[in-house]
């Protein structure tokens, strides 16, 4: 097993990693309640930020588990429809990919763009499929609006995450590392 994966697994043994992850999950849950509902099938929010930060700080394994837990906790506190494992699955794979690309690696704008691009593809294709399964709407009927929304939101999410990461790094993480 490579040192990368050993390090990612070791994050589970660190009290600091677990408590910070719990706080980031709580922040993500709170931010999920501040989501703007554009239409029945389109939402815009900031809950992605703490989950992505958690994945970047603590790796793909904590990112997967934290993403899944966040989704389940959000649903338990404020259900917005029937529970569907697909949404949890999306949170798990996105947390894994963010952790894989950003944990123990230099966080560059290009890496953030690639990770967010993966999340955008998941949102466009898998989430649209889930809406079709849950509500019976035609996939192709939902797809255009979801593509437009995600293409507009993509650069905003990339810039938001990268900016928050730089501020966090300069103000908190860099001091901790030095």
Fold and architecture overview:
By secondary structure, the protein is mainly alpha-helical. The chain has one domain (3-177): Arp2/3 complex 21 kDa subunit ARPC3 (Orthogonal Bundle), CATH 1.10.1760. It has six helices and two strands. It is globular and about 45 Å long. The two termini are 29 Å apart. The mean pLDDT is 92.
The low-confidence runs, each spanning 5 or more residues with pLDDT under 50, are: none
Give the topology string: H per helix, E per strand.
HHEEHHHH
Counted by DSSP, the helix tally is 6
- Determine the mean pLDDT: 92
Distance between the termini: 29 Å
Number of strands: 2
Bin the helical content: over 70%
- Main beta-sheet annotation: 2 strands, antiparallel
The proportion of residues in beta strands is under 5%
Strand order of the main beta sheet, please? Answer: 1-2
CATH topology: Arp2/3 complex 21 kDa subunit ARPC3
Per CATH, the class reads Mainly Alpha
Radius of gyration: 16 Å
Shape: globular
What's the structural domain tally? Answer: 1
